[in-house]
Amino acid sequence: EKEEKEKKEKEEQEILDSIQILPPEKQKKLLHGVQQYFKEMSQFLVRKHDELQKMKRIHTKILNTKGELSPNSIAEAERLRKSYDKLLQGVSSLAELLHLDMPPLPLDESEDQNGEVNVVNIGFKEGSGEGSIWDDEDTRSFYEDLPKLKELVPAVLFEGSGGGKKKEEEEKEE
């Protein structure tokens, strides 16, 4: 595999040497400039990656506390994700053309000790929209919003079960 890569690089270099559009001095300057550009873009990619990971952690906390994200947060996340994807594609293409390695992108720090990663889908509010397990709002409400039976069933039925009032008093004390 490595031999094939070296052979391919050698063939590409022979083709470039035969063309001679620029003199060797200018080729070196141009190559140095492009490599410097790759280095700068790699650093920018790592910063954007960190920013994206930080935003994911914040969104996870918000989802865990409030249960939903604001439309502005969702739009901002999508905008940042698209920008990051384009940047990643550009840097990876440049790395391939220059035969350089991609910069290491740090893993998300929110991974559990077991190696599990919390996945957050910020595309829609749970229980609504496309991909929901419920057909409509009434079905979701039927299964998720449970009524309190003590409010709906007459107290006489609870007394017949053997000390319903005593159990209620014990529950209140606890």
From TrEMBL:
InterPro entries the record matches: Nmd2/UPF2
Originating organism: Paramoeba aestuarina
Domain of life: Eukaryota
Protein name per its UniProtKB record: Uncharacterized protein
Signal peptide stretch: none
Gene Ontology BP annotations: nuclear-transcribed mRNA catabolic process, nonsense-mediated decay
CC terms in the record's Gene Ontology section: cytoplasm; exon-exon junction complex
Gene3D superfamilies xrefs: 1.25.40.180
Lineage per the UniProt record: Eukaryota, Amoebozoa, Discosea, Flabellinia, Dactylopodida
